Model the fold of this input.
Amino acid sequence: MAVFLLDASGDPDAFEALKERLAAAISDLAVIGNIGDVARREVGGGRAVALIAAPAQNREYFSRLLDIVTRYRGAVFFLLIGGDISASEYKALAQSGSADWVSDSAPLQEILDIVARQRGGGSPAPSAAAPRRPDVVSFLPSAGGVGNSTLATETALQLVRAKGGARRKVCLVDLDVQTSHVCDYLDIKPQLQIDELVRAPQRLDSHLLEMFCSRHDSGLHVFAAPRSRLRHVELNVEALDAFFERLAQSYDVIVVDLPVEWRPWTVHVLAASQGVLVTGLNVIPGLRQISETLAAIRSEPAIRGRVLVIVNRCEIGALGRVARRQHVDAVLGAEEKLFIRASRVVEECANTGAPMAIAYPSHKIVKEIAAIAKFCESVAARHGVKK
Done:
């Protein structure tokens, strides 16, 4: 079975780079000028595979492509490689049975796996080890405005790098569907379509998940919805089950940023978490809110994850002492806790879209957040998942 490559992107430089990547992995790759060239060549047994470097958001081209897919159904399998397409367009491709789509930013292996399946080689054999079980850590704010999203984002960025410098697949899931702002913090565009997820959770597959993903240059993947105060569709347990099941197949670590209001699914998410990180402030009302949140967590038998309190925006003296530490100890007692200092770089990084872990890697606050990441790694070790 032959594999053909066609440029429909209108970007010669990008196509040349894609061609070099593919040619290094597919020895019989042939560049063609149009789809008709496939029919005029000897393709051997089975159907040919046509890889198309496609333009993004081009409805006219997509409509023409569907006509071509229909015409060559059974003889050619088409794989679009390009920018984002809509969920309805992706479904039309998938339902044809003769086409698929993959993001131009996806790993090369994803394209090679699809080609292998169409050639009859199937996917690589699964390991005989236990099913994949990612580590899930949830950041739970005890009140609004305590910096929960910032801490979750900065921790997730640090978790991308494992010991020895190797990269882990880490995703950050922002479940505050009305006021999400983690993508603002990272200067990326939110892609998660809550309406689509809730309407048909059973249709969520790896490619729809790909479309819902926002990528940061660090390697962190983010799932966050565009802000909408008027959003009427609420997440539900069924949709979240399908969503997290799909995430579990793709990621080593899932970091969840929860909203301050408890929803019908909040306990469900916390129960699935190996680590629960409660965030709050070092003022008497804030400490009481932390204490009340801890009581709510411990009143739910299903929540069994290790709990850590993060006291944020603390005043730190010249000798490293936390101001009003006695108040924290008096209210929270022997709870496991970490203290994060107040710093001007938090506001600066929020304004510039450059995370502290990248802009100020040696800053004291980044080192303090590294202790949160270390806690998450210790949860992973206890969880017993081999990375």
Remarks:
- Residues 135-383 form a domain with the Rossmann fold fold (CATH 3.40.50.300).
- The chain is about 40% helix and 20% strand.
- The chain has a mean pLDDT of 86.
- The radius of gyration is 24 Å.
